[in-house]
Design brief:
The chain is α/β, with parallel strands linked by helices and 482 residues long. The chain has 21 helices and 17 strands. It has 2 domains: 261 residues, Type I PLP-dependent aspartate aminotransferase-like (Major domain) (Aspartate Aminotransferase, domain 2, 3-Layer(aba) Sandwich), CATH 3.40.640.10; 144 residues, Aspartate Aminotransferase, domain 1 (Alpha-Beta Complex). It is 46% helix and 14% strand. The strands form 5 sheets. A 7-stranded mixed beta sheet has the order 4-10-9-8-7-5-6, sandwiched between helices. The protein has a 4-stranded antiparallel beta sheet with strand order 11-12-15-14. The chain has a two-stranded parallel sheet with strand order 1-13. A hairpin with a 5-residue loop joins strand 16 and strand 17. The longest helix is centred in the last third of the chain and has 23 residues. The relative contact order is 0.15. The chain binds D-serine (DSN). Its cofactor is pyridoxal 5'-phosphate. It catalyses: (6R)-5,10-methylene-5,6,7,8-tetrahydrofolate + glycine + H2O = (6S)-5,6,7,8-tetrahydrofolate + L-serine.
């Protein structure tokens, strides 16, 4: 399911590029080659990773990188931006067409940056403060530095309601380690303690009580669909702006797996995403929004972003063009189908999954029944060549560092062409490793949360079985480097 490409041309392009790089700094050329070898030889199951196409990757290595272009299309703070205008407009046009969005802003350098742009736009658009009238301004965007001093005090206590971290929410949804937790007074909604599912009545009750300015929907570790029509009803009832962070599942939206009530774009006032996860583009971010937020969103640079990375915007345009092809819908459906196969394969072998299944691209394993932490599971799986990441489960007794969970996603291996048979085998390999992992004992006699032993020969046996699967579905087939 890799995006089709001309292997001979891609091989020549990369080989020549590496030789040019090696003539200046061979260590870097070596690291680039080694990364391809590593990616080819491991079972990549990190839910937020993927493999972009050679066309997308090659688009990032060129002279577009040398151009400054702060501002927006047709309104730049530098001369000579006509080609960057073409790039940015093309990417935005593809994004609008792909997602059916009235407006798209493709400059954010990452998901966090996209969220910052969105937060700024919502504050700028929504704040009605006596301080504005006091200084004779209609809009936050019109304030002078002096006005800001007054307004900062009057803006206090803006509220944000988002999913709790242990239910699968994201740090940028109002949590303290991120600026969003400082800009906003945050409250979280969790999931039902019995089912692990989002309880919309509980979200509505929290919204009625808390009256947030921003209701955030979206997640990085919740294995289910979200009904965005219901979330919008809740937002409307309490006068909140609905912001959806679809970073994880943008590929499922683009590929029409999530439609109707489950497609965030028509329901949210502002939708943010990264472009490199299930969407399979270059590393970066993007904001889609309703027309009334467009002017503030377009002020993202220089309000909260540095100058646009034109080479990355160009690669976004290429990846979005790929995602508009029918083959991407086949890919997205396979990502979701493979997640179901993986979930069933794990559950039939006795693994406990949060929510007892999946409706998207990821599954969240609760590994506590193996007597190990998420950290031990993550490390033991890595020893065996299976790349995952530990993740808290709801109400996690081991906290956010050691955790009791492991998050596993299907986008990357689906790009390699893995199907139901392969994902069932992957489930078997994961269970073999977890079953053979035992915590060591601390000097005080308690089980360690970090150290472990893995049964003799399990890592080698798993690597050999993985290699068979990986050989059957090579990454970038036909791409050869000397
Ligand atoms: N780091 C991304 C993830 O792995 O989900 C989200 O920020």
């Amino acid at each position: 399911m890799t995006q089709p490409f001309d292997a001979a041309k891609a091989s020549a392009a990369y080989q020549n590029a590496l030789e040019v790089i090696a003539s200046v700094e061979p260590t870097i050329a070596g690291a680039i080659k080694a990364e391809l070898a590593d990616q080819r030889s491991s079972l990549k199951l990190i839910a937020s990773e993927n493999y972009a196409s050679p066309a997308t990757l090659l688009t990032m290595g060129n002279w577009l990188s040398d151009k400054y272009a702060e501002g927006t299309v047709g309104h730049r703070f530098y001369a000579g931006c006509q080609n960057v205008d073409t790039v940015e407009q093309t990417a935005a046009d593809h994004a609008k067409a792909l997602f059916g969005a009235p407006h798209a802003y493709v400059q954010p350098h990452s998901g966090i940056d996209a969220n910052l742009v969105a937060f700024w736009a919502i504050l700028a658009q929504r704040i009605e403060s006596p301080a504005l009238a006091e200084v004779g301004a209609k809009h936050v965007n019109d304030l002078s530095d002096e006005d800001w001093d007054k307004l900062r005090k009057a803006l206090g206590d803006q509220r944000m309601l988002g999913m709790s971290l242990d239910a699968g929410g994201h740090l940028t949804h109002g949590f303290r380690p991120n600026i969003s937790g400082k800009m906003f007074n945050q409250r979280s909604y969790g999931t039902d303690p019995e089912t692990g599912l989002l309880d919309y009545d509980a979200v509505a009750a929290a919204a009625r009580e808390f009256k947030p300015l921003v209701l955030i929907a979206g997640y990085s570790a919740y294995p289910r669909k979200v009904n965005f029509a219901k979330m919008r009803e809740i937002a409307d009832e309490v006068g909140a702006t609905l912001m959806v962070d679809m970073a994880h599942f943008a590929g499922l939206v683009a590929g029409k797996v999530f439609t109707g009530d489950f497609d965030p774009v028509p329901h949210a006032h502002v939708t943010t995403t990264t472009t490199h996860k299930s969407l399979r583009g270059p590393r970066g971010g993007m904001v889609l929004c309703q027309p009334e937020y467009a002017d503030s969103v377009d002020r993202g640079c220089p309000m909260v972003l540095g100058g646009p990375l034109s080479q990355t915007m160009a690669a976004k345009a290429v990846a979005l063009a790929e995602a508009r092809r029918p083959s991407f819908q086949t890919y997205a459906q396979a990502v979701a189908d493979n997640a179901v196969t993986l979930a069933e394969g794990l559950m039939k072998r006795g693994v406990k999954l949060v929510t007892d299944g999946t409706e998207n691209h990821l599954v969240l394993l609760d590994v506590s029944s193996y007597g190990i932490t998420g950290r031990q599971a993550e490390s033991a799986l890595l020893d065996a060549g299976i790349v995952t990441n530990r993740n808290a489960v709801p109400r996690d007794a081991n906290g956010a560092w050691y955790t009791s969970g492991v998050r596993i996603g299907t986008p990357a291996l689906t790009t390699r062409g893995f199907g139901a048979d392969e994902f069932d085998k992957v489930a078997e390999l994961i269970v073999d490793v977890l079953s053979a992992t035992t915590p060591t004992t601390t000097p005080a006699g308690a089980p360690s949360k970090a150290k472990y032993t893995l049964g003799d020969g399990v890592a080698d046996k798993t690597r050999a079985a993985s290699a068979e699967l990986l050989d059957k579905h090579p990454l970038y087939p036909g791409l050869e480097l000397a």
